[in-house]
TrEMBL record:
Residues 32-181, 296-373 form the Organic solvent tolerance-like N-terminal domain. Keywords: Signal. It holds the Pfam family OstA_2. Transmembrane segments: none annotated. Residues 1-23 form the signal peptide. Gene3D superfamilies: Lipopolysaccharide (LPS) transport protein A like domain. Residues 561-576 have a biased composition (Polar residues). InterPro entries: LPS_export_LptA, OstA-like_N. This is OstA-like protein. Residues 526-560 have a biased composition (Low complexity). Residues 519-586 are annotated as: Disordered. The lineage of its organism: Bacteria, Pseudomonadati, Bacteroidota, Cytophagia, Cytophagales.
């Protein structure tokens, strides 16, 4: 009984398949032409039609000059001014093989596909008329009202309003060119999705590299993952990238790294962006700048780091503001703000700057450090220059002057020239630098101080010097310190403080990044601008601070809330303030 049931089921299936096959074969191609000729080729009969040939099947009409129709296979081969019209789609070519049972058109040579506002050009196109799917496989070009897309292989799904492109894909818009190997394109919304290495080149030469993302071509906006933005002077990398070509704005989030093209400068942080209109890159959220030198690396940290691009080499610079700290072997420092000029590798420190070179502490209203051939060469101290060094029995040798110039040899202070209003307090020691002989107190117009083994070894004074030697028993507390003396060793930054990730015991703790933009250069309202302080010198908790009227004083540092970072896209403040060539803000 079971075998009989199986037999009948098998017959039913065969009959159904036969009915479907007959139905398919029953949809014969209809034709008409000026001339009809019968023939046979390789045991297969055909009908040759010439002169105003017209084929029809369902909603499809085909026009051509000459055609061979193979009735048994329901296939026609057409040549000469081939044109297919199917509802809202028109396709032209020189050659065509039309398979009637499968409703498949294979067009060759000078193929032009037109559907609404879309145009597709290729030499090899297969078109499924039932599914309305166009497939080219030997280079093609799709054009719509916004973009031009070219690739080696492409599929256009007309019903679903999207296209897929593979191999050497190029999307060209009025303002940029996108290159990738795999791209999905929504022909209705004009949104492109890439799924591999992607490069976008803007009309001004800015290049963005990514590993795939979403690109909104109508508004020129994109979201990418793991990539880099190539600006005029830098490469800006991040785990996530945002690109707004209309606003000329690019943003990188998480593990941000900005590398200078023509020098050994690297900036890292939690978030950064590139404002192409103004040629400004900004990194914030634990930003760190590294300047690679011949012997070691100069590290610089601040709340915010800004790179300024310019067609003029002299105007290219990096700015740091709020809580600036630097570290390298033999030199540490702090300041309110900093400007680094790329052309001549000069670093300007503003707003109560303090530098430490081994046992020497150096302060002035403004300090600039010159780097040449990857070595420190000279430090210029402008206005109220002050050098302090502690000896072996905790006395403080002090040198003051209007301006000072410190010269370095092998990244160590070799000599200092003091110009104007020179003052010096120098404690003379004997018996292995453990017994005080007395203190030298000198006034002069200028002097030169020489160093040996990183310690003050000798000095020369010029232009009507006034000198006094005071023995130990005559020294009072007030005599031992020049006006505005402050020993600030506790503020001296360490390497792990500036670059904590170098500490083997460092444990990374992600921070939330709050909205930040170019407007952070401003403070408060949009009409209030931030200016680095250059003439005020707030004291920051010195160990000892003495003057003739006070034996000691302690001052509390002003706290500054550092920038934090947040995973969000924030556009820059349109009221961006410019930066002068000396690094100060207007």
């Amino acid at each position: 009984m079971f075998k009989i049931l199986q037999y009948y089921i098998f017959l039913v299936i065969i009959l159904c398949l036969s009915t479907v096959a007959q139905a398919q074969k029953g949809e014969r191609i209809k034709y008409k032409a000026e001339e009809l000729e019968y023939g046979k080729k390789k045991d297969e009969s055909y009908r040759k039609l010439t002169g105003d040939v017209v084929f029809t099947q369902k909603s499809t009409t085909v026009y051509c000059d000459t055609s061979y129709f193979y009735k048994k296979r329901n296939v026609m081969e057409a040549t000469g001014h081939v044109r297919i019209v199917d509802d809202s789609t028109t396709i032209t070519s020189r050659q065509l093989v039309y398979e009637g049972d499968e409703r498949m058109a294979k067009l060759r040579q000078n193929v032009v596909y037109l559907r609404g506002e879309r145009e597709l050009y290729t030499d090899f196109l297969d078109y499924d008329l039932e599914g309305e799917i166009a497939h080219y496989f030997n280079k093609g070009k799709l054009i719509d009202t916004t973009n031009v897309l070219t690739s080696e292989i492409g599929y256009y799904f007309a019903k679903d309003e999207f296209a897929q492109f593979y191999k050497n894909v190029v999307l060209t818009s009025p303002d940029f060119v996108l290159k990738t190997d795999t791209l999905r394109y929504n022909t209705l919304t004009k949104v492109a999705y890439t799924y591999g290495p992607t490069q976008i080149t803007s009309d001004d030469g800015t290049v963005l590299h990514a590993k795939g993302g979403e690109f909104r071509t109508v508004v020129d906006e994109s979201d990418f993952v793991k990539g880099s933005i190539e600006t005029r002077d830098y490469y800006l990398e991040g785990d996530e990238l945002y690109f707004d070509d209309g606003e000329k704005y690019y943003k990188a989030v998480f593990n941000v790294k900005m590398t200078a093209k023509d020098e050994d400068v690297i900036i890292t942080g939690d978030e950064g962006y590139y404002d192409r209109r103004n040629g400004i890159s900004k990194v914030y959220g634990r930003p760190l700048m590294k300047r690679i030198l011949e012997a070691d690396t100069l590290y610089l940290a601040a709340d915010t780091l800004v790179a300024i691009e310019s067609k003029y080499d002299s105007a290219r610079r990096i700015l740091a503001y709020k809580n600036v700290k630097i570290y390298k072997e033999g030199l540490q420092g702090i300041a309110d703000s900093m400007a680094y000029f790329n052309e001549d590798s000069v670093i300007f420190f503003y707003g109560d700057p303090v530098m430490w070179n081994n046992q020497n502490q150096i302060t002035a209203d403004t300090i600039n450090l010159e780097i040449s051939e990857d070595e420190m060469k000279r430090m210029n101290l402008r206005s109220d220059a002050f050098l302090v060094s502690e000896d072996s029995i905790e006395n403080y040798n002090q040198i003051k002057g209007r301006n000072m110039i410190a010269h370095f040899v092998d990244n160590q202070i070799d000599r200092i020239n003091v110009n104007g209003n020179g003052e010096i307090l120098y404690f003379a020691l004997e018996e292995g630098d453990s017994v005080l002989m007395g203190m030298n107190k000198i006034f002069c117009a200028s002097m030169q101080i020489r160093f040996k083994e990183q310690k003050l070894s000798s000095f020369s004074v010029y232009t009507n010097p006034e000198a006094q030697f005071i023995p130990p028993h005559e020294l009072t507390e007030e005599m031992q310190y020049l006006t505005n003396f402050a020993w600030r060793e506790t503020e001296r930054p360490t390497l792990f403080e500036i670059a904590p990730y170098l500490n083997p015991d460092y444990e990374f703790i992600p921070v939330e990044v709050k909205p930040d933009a170019l407007g952070d250069i401003q403070s408060g309202s949009q009409n209030k601008t931030y200016t680095p302080t250059q003439n005020t010198k707030p004291k920051n908790t010195p160990v000892r601070s003495l003057n003739p009227t006070s034996s000691s004083s302690v001052n509390t540092p002003t706290s500054v809330e550092p920038n934090t970072v947040k995973k969000s896209i924030n556009k820059p403040n349109k009221n961006l303030k410019t930066v002068d060539d000396d690094g100060s803000f207007q």
